[in-house]
Amino acid sequence: MANREQDSVVILMSVVQQLVQQDGEENETIFQELLQPFFAVHGNMELNREGPRQFSGVQEYIERTVTGYSDPYFKKHFRMSRESFEHLIRMMATYLNTNDSGVPVQTKLLVTLWTLANIESFRGIGDRFGMYMGNVHYIFLCTTRAFRLNSIEFIKWPTMAEYTSITQRFSFPYAIGSIDSTFIRIRQPLKQCHVYTNRKKFCAVTLQAVSKPNLEFIDISTGYPSSMHDASVFANSQLGRNLPTLLHGTPFLLLGDSAYGLTTTLMKPYPDNGRLDENSSSCLWLPMCRFLPIWNFSWMITLTIRSN
User: Fold this and answer.
1) Cα→Cα distances 22→26, 47, 243, Å
2) At residue 19, does pLDDT exceed 60?
3) Which cofactors (predicted)?
4) Where are the domains of the chain?
């Protein structure tokens, strides 16, 4: 359970960080250039942008409110159990430095999880957690960057020894994962807008993911324009190129929907041409491919991301 919940967070943060990293770096450069004359006069002064300051909004929300949440209510707000969250704190403590800001790792993670799980402005989130919206935004960027850089600690392709135990949990013989894709909305780009406009008439990039039966992610790939067909995204992804090698000499395979091509390592449903018997038609729909809609509606920010 802990791995599944943490994997979904890392995937989301990888997507968000990839979308906002360029804008964030440009804004930081501009910010530093504008303040350079001030630093020349007053010396080298630490900005401490994510540090706590005097604030007139909600006070001690975490100490007085979050600590009193029941386990189900905590999971409802932050999308993971307290046990998973405590494990996440231990894993990320090394990467989320608090010495220069005074903001605890727990606070950084709670702020980031809340931002990802809810459709709310940085101003509203800052008021809830007792911070200015600029501090919330900076904490969010730093935390998502830390997760992206260490995503290999969370999202791992299973070893050969794990294949057998995974396939025993599938209802399909020798399956070790289900593959599917979803759209992540972006702002309309200035160039090549048509490339990123999909069949649903909005601009987006494609997220391709592979999941175990327990909805734990084992591979992701993102950034491809949403006008690309799922089969093309798979063929151009690192997984698509490496899958024959990963499963070479084994009977194991992935399950996908009808958008994918049929190969020895990827099984798709039978085409419904009106000639299927009862046993064959039962394989038309693969319930294992439900994991991305669940992921989308757990992390509401995926429905509202707007970035170049």
Assistant:
1) 6, 21, 31
2) no
3) a divalent metal cation
4) 2-150, 160-303
